[in-house]
Write a structure and sequence with these properties.
The structure is a homohexamer.
Chain A: H1 4-17, H2 19-30, H3 34-48, H4 56-70, H5 74-86, H6 91-100, H7 102-126
Chain lengths: 131, 131, 131, 131, 131, 131
Amino acid sequence: MVSERYRKGLTEMRRHLGTPEADEYIAKINEVSAEFAKLNVEFPFGELYRRDILDDKTRELCAVTALTVLGHALPELRVHVKAALNCGASREEIVEVVTQMIAYCGFPAATNALLTVKETFELIDAEPTDD
Amino acid sequence: MVSERYRKGLTEMRRHLGTPEADEYIAKINEVSAEFAKLNVEFPFGELYRRDILDDKTRELCAVTALTVLGHALPELRVHVKAALNCGASREEIVEVVTQMIAYCGFPAATNALLTVKETFELIDAEPTDD
Amino acid sequence: MVSERYRKGLTEMRRHLGTPEADEYIAKINEVSAEFAKLNVEFPFGELYRRDILDDKTRELCAVTALTVLGHALPELRVHVKAALNCGASREEIVEVVTQMIAYCGFPAATNALLTVKETFELIDAEPTDD
Amino acid sequence: MVSERYRKGLTEMRRHLGTPEADEYIAKINEVSAEFAKLNVEFPFGELYRRDILDDKTRELCAVTALTVLGHALPELRVHVKAALNCGASREEIVEVVTQMIAYCGFPAATNALLTVKETFELIDAEPTDD
Amino acid sequence: MVSERYRKGLTEMRRHLGTPEADEYIAKINEVSAEFAKLNVEFPFGELYRRDILDDKTRELCAVTALTVLGHALPELRVHVKAALNCGASREEIVEVVTQMIAYCGFPAATNALLTVKETFELIDAEPTDD
Amino acid sequence: MVSERYRKGLTEMRRHLGTPEADEYIAKINEVSAEFAKLNVEFPFGELYRRDILDDKTRELCAVTALTVLGHALPELRVHVKAALNCGASREEIVEVVTQMIAYCGFPAATNALLTVKETFELIDAEPTDD
């Protein structure tokens, strides 16, 4: 019943965010709007992210950049810090991108982003390992 | 008379923006505030950009990202489109970063950025070549 | 002791936000600044909202739009989701306005707004009914 | 060669913006990025705007609201002032929406929007009539 | 025919912006909306600015701060740079406030503000003197 | 091992924020990035704030202004409300600056700032006194 674009978008989204994370993210949105959930899978992940011109890691560092500068998007920043790690960025690189942003958005937005990055790292460290 | 940090910052800034461009950028600011001009060289370029964790091209794609999302920073976007090209990004990659940003800042800011990118490319194409 | 404009503004505000809600909203502000509280009643509600050119429902859908795009105004969004319902908007229309905003402010701000809309609907559903 | 969604999106876009205006808008973007142009037709107009839950006039008043609040989107505001008129909004209603926004984004953004609305009205009045 | 508040607001506005400047500012807005023009005089200048708690110079330095941080409000910044000078701020203090803002809004918004301040100073210097 | 600029910056920062507060603020950032922490001390406090052109109280009222207008910087607003009090601003003046900002950033951002100011005052009042 879902479109080809949705199917490909969900695959891409899972590759970036992780499998349970992508599905949980969309499920939460789907509870209030099936349309919004569909668009969230199909448009950024089914269209924008699937083009080969930029590699996944660069895309996710740009996502971290954007979410830092916006200032009001800390829940999404949490998601994309994990996605950046999934796509091969190091913790040091993520922190460096946020630090560079001081020059573009000032200390308040960059500081809130940095502390959100820190919390996300701590949550990851607290997760039970698979072994 | 200038600090070591200023000297290193100016070298870095010229490497990103180009030699006459960096100097002209700072000269214009210096006309109204020597302090602001000094900080602009010393802080982003003498400190942030000189760290090795991210390569120049990634830093400039992040700068293009930030200036797209801010929405009100088109003059600076022009400068960093050129800087991104100087640091090895292709035109296609710059356009792709701006296109990805539709998902983060919406069409209006992304469209204004895209048209500024286009103008910058056209200005570059209209420049006399060295041969 | 209060001005005619205050009296009319409070009537308008109660019609939009609900009677205890409007009074509680202003009381909380009044604890720190009587001036700010007075302006909040007199200016948007005593002046802007009382003009007949737009109907109440359209005004509240525009308020939901603005608070979605701002990104940092989720507490006020909660208030105006209720106000939009009070003024005749359906839940579906409120969700649709937020969804349209994806194109204007991107997914992060629109997603945070959508989840705030969802929470507000859930709070309303959890309220004891009058019967 | 274009998708069904593109075709429907372009029809919708022309209905909102006017026929030469929609095509010219997309052509300008297409010069620098065929992908961005395609997304601009397919996503907001082929998906978001085609849903029946809100009527065209309400959608365009919400677009005027969003572009006022953003502050940095005056070129897009010009386009949507015309679109709002095309979709049945009166000049008075457009001005009223911008005026309401004073309460949400303050005077500077609302004033810049109002003066852009004024310029757009003047451009329309200066256009040759068909008779 | 105008209210007491309008009359007092206009006096205050002229004291800040200068006499022909205040009247011209309002006249331009009045051409498209008498309501917006009235609110612009009555609300910020008839209410907010007339309270004694802050002196005029501090208020205008705060206005310069706000318009710098907003990023998209350069026309209003021009007006308030003049107003700050009218209210006793020195050019050096205005430049210093904009420079401090680098830390709060980053270089792009602060740079655009600084260059607008520079242009405003140059326009003032080019004005014919009264002698 | 720390630079002269860091040492002077920390002294300045403690004078504005209070001694344990400044150290705690930086320690929290230092846990995730020593570089960011160093820049936060050296740049705003070691450079910007140490210049004599503006007095400390004016600088802090401008900081409160900026953090109000940004909208997404309430944690930093809390810090600078305390700093403004430390530098000689009265509670009434802080509230007045936030109230003036209604005209520049609208009610939602100003209201969130006002309620954050209120919370900060309440936290201060709840602190044990030294006697």
